[in-house]
Write a sequence for this structure.
């Protein structure tokens, strides 16, 4: 029952671009106050820096699907912005790693 109330009965966010690893950042001056405590909690969490949707869901103790609905509402209201996740590091050339390892061993 709680998740139904939190999302005003909606099961899907207004935007389908939100993934669990999407980063969330609160805007400097939010345009309006948030009446729901879950949304206020989400904004407070994001004021400290970028937080992923999955991290926010964990902190709020809500399912990711419910958190996506809240995030979409706050993005639509101009209170949050989203950023793509940090791309995974590309594998480094093994030859370069071997040269670095050899150089380090030579100094010991």
């Amino acid at each position: 029952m709680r998740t139904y109330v939190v999302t005003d009965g909606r099961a899907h966010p207004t935007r389908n671009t939100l993934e669990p690893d999407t980063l969330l950042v609160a805007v400097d001056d939010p345009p309006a106050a948030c009446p729901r405590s879950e949304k206020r909690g989400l904004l407070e969490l994001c004021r400290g820096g970028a937080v992923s949707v999955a991290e926010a869901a964990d902190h709020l103790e809500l399912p990711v699907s419910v958190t996506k609905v809240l995030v979409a509402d706050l993005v639509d209201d101009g209170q949050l912005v989203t950023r793509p996740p940090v791309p995974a590091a590309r594998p480094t050339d093994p030859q370069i790693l071997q040269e670095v390892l050899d150089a380090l061993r030579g100094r010991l």
